[in-house]
Specification:
The chain is an alpha/beta fold. It has a domain at 3-151 and 184-211: 3-Layer(aba) Sandwich (Rossmann fold). Helix content is 38%, strand content 16%. The chain contains nine helices and ten strands. Strands 2-1-3-4-5-9 form a six-stranded parallel β-sheet, sandwiched between helices. A two-stranded parallel sheet has the order 6-8. It has a two-stranded parallel sheet with strand order 7-10. Strand 1, helix 1 and strand 2 form a beta-alpha-beta unit. The protein is globular and about 55 Å long. NADP nicotinamide-adenine-dinucleotide phosphate is lined by residues 8, 10-14, 31-32, 36-38, 58-62, 77, 81, 99, 101, 130, 146-149, 155, 157.
Length: 261
């Protein structure tokens, strides 16, 4: 059985992958309890003792708005943490999969759709640090960009769709953007795609994303309809209004995949 070490294994995606892959791979779940990825020596000491074939790097500072205020920490985790892990994994001559994000793109309408050939141009600090992480491993590891993962996960953090359902059930009004696109992706499809990549590893860039892009407003209406909740609680807002006092984000994040895993 292939041994897969997973950083960020208690996060939204990692916790679900650990569950999904129980019978497929020998998963070695890693989280802060094992080591902090910004601690170079701790990373090295720990990983030197662990046996694995592939390292799946999910751990990250993922709070997009928080990253603008906490620049140094976001950089340390997303850039230096990636460097610490990648250097050790390379020394062990093992395969590395770096998980990245659609936030590396600028989301300008004239540039859509964003494919693996599109040039990153991140707008916010989170996207910038994730792109710096990509540069560390580029050409030497697989880079897999994800976008708006959703679905059940045993993690403490809920996916954005479960958060919307929770808010609608609590009868909260939701302001959702009309003039923007996102590309939601089921976490279980991410699990299936990453499993294929682990079985058939190539150090390339892949977009592992859902088939359709939709505006958050239309998605909110669909979620309300599908769950028999009050759709009047979903109210339109423009991207410009939403963006006030928030980290800059890609507006038209229509992401597609050219490279089949
Ligand atoms: N969720 C999304 O919308 C999305 C979209 C595209 C791409 N991605 C990418 O997918 C990956 C996984 O995302 P996710 O949503 O599963 O993230 P998440 O739920 O925030 O989980 C991230 C995990 O990383 C751990 N971590 C953070 N800093 C660490 C450190 N210094 N040392 C060790 N562990 C650390 C966290 O532990 P603590 O909880 O203890 O901090 C957490 O368990 C990330 O690389 C992210 O950039 C996510």
């Amino acid at each position: 059985m292939i041994k897969v070490a997973v950083s960020g294994a208690k996060g939204l995606i990692g916790a679900r992958l650990t569950e999904l892959w129980q019978d497929k791979f020998k998963v070695i779940p890693l989280d802060r309890t094992e080591f902090d990825i910004i601690d170079k020596k701790a990373v090295k000491d720990y990983l030197e003792k662990v046996e694995f074939d592939v390292f799946l790097h999910l751990a990250a500072y993922t709070n997009v708005d928080g990253a603008e205020k906490d620049k140094e920490l976001a950089y340390k985790i997303n850039v230096e943490g990636t460097k610490n892990l990648f250097n050790t994994v390379q020394q062990k001559n093992k395969k590395f999969i770096y998980i990245s994000t659609d936030f590396v793109f600028d989301g300008k309408k004239e540039n859509i759709p964003f494919t693996e050939k599109s040039l990153p141009n991140p707008l916010g600090w989170y996207g910038k640090t994730k792109y710096e992480g990509e540069k560390i491993v580029a050409g030497k590891a697989a880079i897999v960009r994800l976008s708006y993962p959703f679905g059940p996960s045993p993690a403490l953090k809920q996916c954005f769709i479960h958060r919307i359902i929770g808010a609608l059930k609590a009868k909260k009004t939701l302001k959702m953007i009309t003039d923007s696109l996102i590309t939601p992706t089921p976490i279980d499809n991410i699990g299936a795609g990453l499993a294929r990549l682990i079985d058939n590893y190539r150090p390339q860039i892949f977009h592992l994303v859902g088939r359709e892009s939709i505006s958050p407003y239309n998605l909110g209406l669909k979620i309300a309809r599908d769950n028999h909740l009050n759709k009047d609680l979903v109210q339109p807002i423009t991207f410009a209004q939403y963006s006030q006092e928030r980290a800059p984000r890609p507006q038209w994040a229509k992401i597609i995949s050219l490279n089949q895993i």
